[in-house]
Specification:
Layout lengths: L4 E6 L2 H9 L8 E4 L7 E4 L1 H4 L9 H7 L4 E4 L2 H15 L6 E5 L2 E5 L4 H4 L2 H16 L3 E6 L2 H8 L7 E3 L5 H6 L11 H8 L6 H6 L2 H8 L1 H10 L18 E12 L2 H21 L2 E12 L4 E12 L2 H13 L7 E13 L8 H20 L36
Helix pairs in contact: 4-6, 11-12, 13-14
């Protein structure tokens, strides 16, 4: 049976949720930003997009394009709640739902269509339920695979529906710019342009062997993408591969260069990473430290540990050791910590009394924070810390599992 894949893409999700939450914002140009003055535009309403306001602009740039722009601080808890409820609605139509990001999902409805009558009928039901409950719209793409379904959902916005059938694939891709395909960014497009490849049709006709000679194994994938071929399955959360890392990064409210200030942020990040690792029973062997300067120069370094760790203090000490091996040249804008080389294992009671005490204290802190909220109980050195979590939701966020990052 030919696969039928659906891609759901919520339209201007953060901005739309804010406009429904606050009627005074409806019909006006708004942009959702992070929770401090150093952020960029996370998303803009369609009223603001008409002026050229888009994701990634600084607030100053956005206001230059739209002087009447209303800036709205991000409300991550609201967005994650709405996203979780939308994903539950999608599961009413098929168990094969893959959460792609906070506002996107793939659905394999191959075996579900007959239950609801037609493709259009399923789309109508999903759109109407989301609109009735949350007052927001989504664009839907339907195609034989995930690559084309995502492409289709981008073709008519907002509140669109596009169906690409097998017999339409060649015609649809012939003059489509390659950057419209998910997985081909600006840098790859620039490289392909050197070979006079600018459209999907040109990519599909270009000899696969020559692409493999230039791009290695990726070349074969590029050739298939140009032809609209994608065999990747829709993977529900319960069947997803285990994550390879647990991490957090934080853009700071001000640039810092003092060691004491950097250490306080590293301790906070270590607690955020450690607590999530402990919640899902994973230990890591390698700690990565990421640093971004005020001029946006970004670099990182990693260090392997003698054994797998997930206690916040151990992660922190490893990060400090990496920091001490670096010679920081400029003020720091962003810090990040990531735990990799993960393994799942059952906890074993440490042999030494001081280690047992530390583990019990950690477990007690986790219980309190899990029940009453992040940093209800914290290390004393964090008491004067003003930033209490992530300001921007990671694209890796998921409603369930280890990717469900606690948000401020």
């Amino acid at each position: 049976m030919e696969r039928i894949i659906m891609h759901i893409d919520m339209n201007a999700f953060f901005a739309s949720v804010e406009q429904q939450s606050n009627p005074a914002l409806r019909g006006k140009p708004i942009a959702v930003t992070g929770s401090d003055s150093r952020t960029v535009i996370l998303t803009a309403s369609y009223e603001a997009r008409a002026f050229g306001v888009k994701t990634g602009l600084t607030t100053w740039e956005a206001r230059q394009k739209c002087p009447d722009l209303i800036l709205v601080p991000t409300n991550n808890r609201l967005y994650t709640h709405v996203s979780s409820q939308i994903m539950k609605i999608l599961h009413d139509y098929t168990p094969l739902v893959e959460v792609f990001s906070i506002d996107e999902a793939f659905m394999d409805i191959t075996g579900s269509v007959s239950m609801f009558g037609s493709l259009e009928r399923i789309c109508y039901l999903i759109k109407s339920r989301i609109s009735a409950r949350f007052g927001i719209t989504c664009s839907i793409g339907i195609a034989p695979n995930k690559l084309l379904a995502k492409l289709a959902s981008e073709m008519k916005k907002p509140d669109g529906l596009t169906i690409i059938r097998n017999e339409d694939v060649s015609r649809t891709l012939e003059h489509m710019p390659i950057v419209e395909l998910c997985g081909i960014g600006r840098k790859m497009a620039a490289k392909l342009a050197l070979y006079s490849i600018r459209t999907c049709g040109e990519l599909g006709r270009y000899p696969a062997e020559r692409l493999k000679m230039r791009f290695g194994i990726v070349g074969e994938k590029l050739h298939q993408m140009g032809l609209g071929i994608d065999d990747s399955p829709v993977i529900p959360a319960e069947e997803a591969e285990e994550v390879k890392s647990v991490g957090h990064s934080m853009t700071l409210k001000r640039d810092i260069r003092e060691r004491a200030d950097i250490l306080r942020y590293l301790l906070q990040l270590s607690e955020m990473v450690g607590r999530r690792a402990r919640r899902y029973g994973v230990w890591g062997k390698t700690v990565h430290l990421t640093v971004r300067y005020a001029d946006f120069t970004t670099f990182g370094k990693q260090g392997s540990q003698p054994h797998h760790i997930n206690l916040s203090e151990e992660i922190y000490l490893a990060a400090v050791k990496i920091l001490d091996s670096l010679e920081l040249q400029h003020p720091v804008r962003l810090l990040g910590i990531r735990l990799t080389n993960l393994q799942h294992q059952t906890s074993q009671l440490p042999l030494f009394p001081e280690e047992q005490t530390r583990l019990k204290l950690t477990e007690a802190m986790d219980k309190v924070n899990n029940r009453h909220g992040d940093f209800t109980v914290m290390f004393a050195s964090l008491l004067d810390q003003q930033e209490k979590g992530s300001h921007v939701i990671s694209p890796a966020w998921r409603p369930e599992g280890i990717r469900n990052v606690a948000v401020a």
